[in-house]
Structures are given as C-alpha cells and as structure tokens.
Amino acid sequence: MSLNKETEQDNFWLSAKGQHVRVPYLPNLFLSWKAKLHPDYERARDEVLNPWIRTWVDDDMTCRKLQKAEFGVFAAILCADAPFDRLCTVAKYFAWYFIWDDILTNTPVFDCGALQGQPLAMKEYRDASMEYIKHQLLPENPCPDLSVYPLELQKALECWEEVGVHIRSVCDRGTCEVLFEAMLAYISAVGDANALFHDGSVPSVEAYWWRRDYAAGVYPTIATIPFALGVDITPAYAAIPEMQALWKSTSYLVHITNDMLSLRKELRDGQIENIVPVLMLNEGLNINEAIQRSYHFAEENARGVESTGAALLSRADGKHSDVAKAFTRGCMDIAAGLIHWSYSGQRYFKASDLDAENVLHFYAVSKEKMVHVGGVNVNLPILTPKMYSKIPAVAAGSLVAMVCGGLWYLKLLV
After folding, report:
1. pTM of the predicted structure, to 2 decimals
2. Structural domain boundaries in the chain
3. 141 partner at 20 to 30 Å CA-CA among 151, 175, 317, 393?
4. Closest by alpha carbon to 230, among 92, 36, 340, 80?
C-alpha cells in the first residue's frame, strides 16, 4: 500500500497531535521470566565498557549518550553465568551496534550521520564493513584498507577488532561462520530500512517487517549466544526449521516491543519509521488502536518464542542438546531482557511516567527536535517535508531556536 508522504504523513501528524497514548506493561508478556544479572556487571561497566566507549567515540555528547544507555545491563542478562571477560566483550559488541549504525542510518536533517545523503559512499563503507567483520571472524580473508575513510568511520570498525578476536578465540569456525552470515545480512540491510519512507511512500505492514527484520541487529545478537553461553553451532544446525522459527519469533518480538516503547521518543524526534504509525496509516487506526494491535502481535510472538523453543528442545538429540538449551534460554533472555533493559533505564521514559498498573502514559506532541547549539540543547520544531524544501542551503552558519511570546522562531546566523 503506497501513500503520499506529503499528504498522508502530514495528516498523521495532525491526527496524532494531542492523543493520550497508553502502552501496556510489556514485562507481562513473560510472567514466568525473572531477570538474572551477572554479579559483576557494574564493574564491567565502570572499569571496561565506559572507558572503551570513551576510547572509540570522540564526540562528547554521543559518548555520554552511549554510556548512559547502560548496555552492560542487557549484556549482564545474556551473560549472567558467563566469565567476566565474555560479559565485557558482549557489552562492547552491543554498544558497537549503536556506534556503527548511527553512521549508516539516514538520520533527520538536523542530526546528520557521517554518511547521510551520500548513497555511493554509504555503499562503499558498508562493503568495507562486511569485509572487515569477515576478516576478524574468518582471518584468512583479506582486511580492507580503512585509511581511505575519515577517522570516525575507521574507529567505528576498528573498535570491533578486539570483539572479533575474542569471539574467534573461544568459538569454533562453524560458529564464527553462523555469526558472520547474521552480521552480513544485518550490515546489508542497515541504511535501507528508512528508504521505505524516503521516496514519499509508506510501506505495507509486511514490507516494513520484512526490512525491519534484518536491519535491527537481532539475528547477530542471537548468533552471539554460543559465545556467551559456551557452546558451538554448525551452519547446518542453525538452518533447521525449528531453530529458524525460534530466531524469527524472537526477532519479531524484539522489534514490536521496541517500537512500542520508543514511540514517544520517535514522535518527538519527528520520525514515522515505527510499526505504530505504519499500522495507523495502512489500516486507518488511531494511536491506541495501533498500539493494541501491536501488543497482540507481541503476545503471538512471545508465545511463539516459547513454543518454538520447546519444539527445538524436543527434536534435539544428545549431540545438539546443549546447543538447543542454550538457544532456548538465550532467545528468551534476549526478548525479555531487552524489555527489562528499557524499563530499568531511562532510554525512552522514566519510572514516573508509569501509572499504578505500570501502564506508560504520554501525549503525542507536535514534531520537535533537540539540537545542540553552542553547548546548549534547544528544541526546534520538526518541519514537514514541504517546509524543509523551503529552507535555503547555507554554506556556513548555525541554526538557533528562539522563543518569543510563546512562539517558535528560527533565525539563520551566517
């Protein structure tokens, strides 16, 4: 279903503004699951992860944002019983997704990534990324020359070297091949997901999920389970229907729940690349109807994680029993652990935003964007595509937001 971005998306913003949004308490999807964290995750964060982020991320604001995200919490769930060094490596791996993804993702006009608006350069860097990851996991393959890229882009890949070396030292070749194939699919898809919206159309629900399935890094995360839990897997066993069904249910559940929890932030950032607006625009729903539909999808896939995990265990023979147990546990920890991570931190909301029954409440607001100007965060109105087209190109200068009499004004200082 193709919709006109100039009319339908603008109408979406008008219809969404001011709606009272209610997001159900997502931990209820897994009532029997209890969060178990590695006992040393705070030490891993303070002594290893945060210094590592400071080493590889030069921009102070981005560095603080990544440190505040508390990747160590999610890693500590997946690695609850793992050796300390594996916990640290998995935490770095999870942080790396955000470091690298920000470079490839087409970001809004006031928050440009290093390759935003440069499709050829983006493709070349994506290809180099594939070659670099392949070299780290399967070192007989050549390492690409990264010196042709700006330092920021070099560091976004080079920081993964110690991750790859550690994984390769622990896991056998088959496991490294499974991880690389998952990484290959992810790297190929990143930067393309938002293109579904870029040409003025809104994708069908099916098209959105097909692209989202590979572009969010869930499959590579699942493929780290052998490293975290101390097993190895062959490509053939990773391809059996029961294993693939478990991965698919886990992936869909992670995407759905993340879209629901990130909705408020994305609306405030002027973003529409989310299952809730896609459902609204395709099916004529209001926000809360779309959220309830999303929650129904989440319930289906939560039960799917449980049933496909049970099917995998029932088929496993002695040779694959430990692998099946690891993936059944690991996929549950990934799906439920990411929800726990969102509720335990402040990435999308604060505890005070929840009511007595832990329902998240907020009001959909006009599109706004936080911009860093002269060391100060200011809110600018997020303009519609028509309004953006009327802003002249400025060779040099800064965009400053001014509040006068309760109205927003923009002033270009050249």
Report:
1. 0.84
2. 25-261+295-349, 368-413
3. 151
4. 80
Architecture of domain 25-261+295-349: Orthogonal Bundle (1.10)
Burial class from Cβ neighbours inside 10 Å (0-12, 13-18, 19+) for residue 22 reads: middle
Task: Classify the phi-psi angles of 403: left when phi > 0, otherwise alpha if psi is within -120 to 50, otherwise beta.
Answer: beta
Profile the chain (414 residues) by mean pLDDT over runs of 10 residues. Answer: 56 81 96 95 97 94 90 94 98 94 51 61 91 98 95 95 97 98 91 65 85 88 98 98 97 96 89 89 92 97 96 91 97 96 85 93 66 42 39 38 34 31
Distance, in Å, from the CA atom of 110 to the CA atom of 371, rounded to the nearest integer, reads 7
* Residue-level pLDDT at 394: 38
* Residue 72 CB contacts under 8 Å (≥ 6 apart), including other chains: 41, 42, 44, 45, 49, 87, 91
If we measure between CA atoms, which residue out of 303, 327, 331 comes closest to residue 315?
A: 327
**Strand 368-373 and strand 376-381: pairing?**
antiparallel
> What one-letter code names the amino acid at 332?
M
Q: Which amino acid is at 242?
A: E
